[in-house]
Each structure stands twice: as C-alpha cells, then as structure tokens.
C-alpha cells in the first residue's frame, strides 16, 4: 500500500498563533519540532499497518519546515518551493490513499489560524461548492481517484472534512477557543491519538470514496478588498464579477483550476494597505 501525506502547520498540536508557524517567530523552532514528531507518529503507524511506501509533502509556507533528519528513515520527503502543485505536489494515481495532517479550517470559518492560502481570501468556490485548502487539495486527490482517508488538525478542519467526505477518519488534536487560542492535547497524547487513528483510517480505506471534482470547474475567489481582486485579474482568462471582489476563471480541469488559484493568490498578496 502506497500512502501520500500533505503536512501543514497551523493544525499541529499546541500551535496557536503566528509565532509558532512563521520562521521569524520566537516559537517557530519549537513548532517545527512538534510538527516533525506529529508527522512521524502517522508515518510509523502507516508502516506498521501495512504501508510499503510513504511520501510526505511539506505543505506550509516555504515548505521546508519538517526536519528530514528526524523523520522515519523509510520516508520520502518533498520539501521546498516553488512547487507546481504546492500542497499536493507529487500526488498522482499511484497512491492508494492520502492523509492531510496539521490542517486547519478554511477562511471565514471558526478555527485556529483559519485561512485559505492567504489571509486576503474570504472564500474559494469550485462551481457552487465553497472549499478551503483541505477541500481543494482533496479534489486534486479525487482527480487521480485517490481517497482522502484521514485529516488531522483542529476541530474546524475535522468538521470541514466530515462535511465533504463521508466515512473519513478525523483526528482532533486541539479545540478552538478563538482564532489564536485553543484547548490542546499534549504532543504525547496527540501521538497516541494519531497512531490509533492512522491505523483505523488505513483499515477503513475501502469505505471512503475519492472526492471527484467536476468537469470543467469554474473557480471563483472572493477577496477581502478590491485591490486584491485587481491584482488577481491580471492573470489572463480571469474576470472580476461586477460589484464584487470575486474573480473567476473557467478551467479545463481541476489541475488547471488549482494552478490558477496559486497564481491569483500570489498576485493578490502584492496588494498594499494604501
């Protein structure tokens, strides 16, 4: 069995604000150690449950957070950026299942450090379905007929996963108090939970169907202000919906929609306050 893992940081045990997840923050080194330990619990359980190969994609910020020297020796790590498919780089039809760890709630939702790729996005839409990073990434997995079998992170991420994917296994390592506060398990207790949940997810893999994306999806991104929409609209093929801060793009498939989202959000981040 071949397993794909995408590991973000905001949903990791005990991490609650930018000082834990920004490389310039005073808590970042602690955060990346906990992130690496948490990833290892899942990897080790996966190998013990019958996986023959585990590929991990570091999916946070500059995507060079995981300490490769601390990972299970049989792990293959995708690290660094720029990656053509960002948080789902390396995912293809050869995998039997996917696990997303360290995930968080989408933008505009209650959750620890909730957002969708950038802090200036309010909502992502694929046709009429609102998605965040979790949902968009699950659609890419579904394009390759790979089921997302488990999501680990805060309670907001778990709720989002359960709404999108029936029978998915979720592992909640912290409960939201506010966007920058949580009631968290300790790393040791979270490790026990992740070990158990990974085994359950792999054993129940056949009960989870891939999240199949629509053909020719219409991508729409609602931004926080009009300047961000103007920047995103510089990408050819996009249009601003009149009277809104929403930019849409007609994609030929979910892979093109995903890369369009990456370009649009990168452009939007160039917006200044005034």
UniProtKB/TrEMBL annotation:
The keyword Protease applies. SUPFAM superfamilies: Dipeptide transport protein. InterPro entries: DppA_N, Peptidase_M55, Peptidase_M55_sf. It comes from the Bacteria. Its EC number is 3.4.11.-. GO terms for molecular function: aminopeptidase activity. It holds the Pfam family Peptidase_M55. Keywords: Aminopeptidase, Hydrolase, Protease. This is D-amino peptidase. It comes from Peribacillus deserti. The lineage of its organism: Bacteria, Bacillati, Bacillota, Bacilli, Bacillales.
